[in-house]
Automatic annotation (TrEMBL):
Keywords per UniProt: Isomerase
Alphabetized InterPro entries for the sequence: NagB/RpiA_transferase-like, Ribose5P_isomerase_typA_subgr, Ribose5P_isomerase_type_A
Organism lineage: Bacteria, Pseudomonadati, Pseudomonadota, Gammaproteobacteria, Oceanospirillales
GO cellular component, one term: cytosol
Record-listed substrate binding positions: 32-35, 85-88, 98-101, 125
Recorded metabolic or biological pathway in which this protein acts: Carbohydrate degradation; pentose phosphate pathway; D-ribose 5-phosphate from D-ribulose 5-phosphate (non-oxidative stage): step 1/1
Name of protein: Ribose-5-phosphate isomerase A
Ubl conjugation in keyword set: no
Origin superkingdom: Bacteria
Similarity remark: Belongs to the ribose 5-phosphate isomerase family.
Provenance organism: Halomonas caseinilytica
Its biological purpose: Catalyzes the reversible conversion of ribose-5-phosphate to ribulose 5-phosphate.
Active site as annotated: 107 (proton acceptor)
Gene Ontology annotations of biological process type: D-ribose metabolic process; pentose-phosphate shunt, non-oxidative branch
Amino acid sequence: MTQDELKDAVAAAALDEIRPLLGRNVVIGVGTGSTANRFIDKLATLRGDFRGAVASSEATAERLRGHGIDVFELNETGTLPVYVDGADEVNAHFHMIKGGGAALTREKIVAACSERFVCIADASKRVGRLGNFPLPVEVIPMARSYVARELVRLGADPVYREGVITDNGNQILDCYEFMIDDPEAMEARLNSIAGVVTNGLFAARGADVLLLGTDQGVERLTPSGE
Ligand SMILES: O=C(CO)[C@H](O)[C@H](O)COP(=O)(O)O
């Protein structure tokens, strides 16, 4: 199967995963990226079965609205039952690198506010150790050079993602050559650098369900193996 077919398969599986959670008053969290987009397109078929969605990016909000799905501000909704999103890498502990699409901050906020994180990913995203994919760090623009120097001190090779402004008006440094042995500790360490808004490690709050697209079908995996 092609990578696009695998993305389609996990998007369809996510629909089955969330269907029992839906209801007239239910608002769900929706992520960003090409896999999430496929999920959004399929979600449109369930439009009458739930109230609407909180989007993790302006692009996602626009796509949802394009399908006639109501988009809510997170401040209006309280805790969400489920958040569905892709990942750039995911390890055996369901820790992830995210933010390839520069939406990491809002993704982390919506994930934090959701009872369950359903990660949808094709098999190429599964890794033993996080870090082959360059780790994105969102920074306040005036702090970019300072944060880059701090990242070098930590062993990374940060590269400014030129021309990209996040939905929050900030900039992105992508950390190359940065293999991560302890994702939780590194997530906290990076967040302690002045000027860092968020980093793309989702470890303190990883995925609760991983729907992994493989040539043999979609595997449904949970940290406990249930
Ligand atoms: O974190 C993200 C966007 O900020 C995406 O979830 C991640 O980049 C995966 O994207 P795709 O589904 O296109 O491979």
